[in-house]
Amino acid sequence: MTERAVHLQDFLAEARAGRLTGIRCGHCGALAIPPKEFCESCQQREWQTVPLGGAGTIVSYTVIRVAPRGHGGEVPYGVAVVRLEEGVSLLGRIVDIPLDALKSGRPVCFRPLEISGQLLIGFGPA
Q1: Over the stretch 27-70, which tens digit does the pLDDT of each residue have?
Q2: Helical ranges in 1-126 per DSSP H
Q3: Main-chain dihedrals φ then ψ at residue 115, nearest 5 degrees
Q4: What is the pLDDT of residue 74?
């Protein structure tokens, strides 16, 4: 088995520090969110880490009203697919935006979110 080019733990460590990172294929230039083994566009493994600004817009969202086991105190909360300005999409928890104000096309910005010692990708008002 081939070792991963970019580890998820590195991506999460950067996010915890407030920096969102992506990976760009050195062969074809495609941008992705780690971890990825091979480029989906050209099947090469020439990744380079690149900083992402974190600004984007909500593409779609849902409101979680029934929590997964052990997370009952967190509901309700929003989760959204956010398309970043750089062109890649990322799933994250919505913070500091009222649930009734969620809508597709709303500008948001990356915010690291830690709950019970676990890092979550969060997005709040832009």
Answers
A1: 999 999 988 888 999 999 889 999 999 999 999 999 999 988 87
A2: 8-16
A3: -130, 120
A4: 84
d(Cα 47, Cα 110) in Å, to the nearest integer?
A: 23
Considering the entire predicted model, what is its pTM?
0.88
- The domain locations on the chain are 8-52, 55-125
Question: So what's the architecture of 55-125 in CATH?
Answer: Beta Barrel (2.40)
List, in sequence order, every residue forming a beta bridge with 48; answer none if it has no partner.
24
pLDDT at position 3: 45
How far is 115 from 19, CA to CA, in rounded Å? 18
The kind and range of the H/E element at 111 are strand 107-115
Chain CA centroid to CA 57, Å: 12
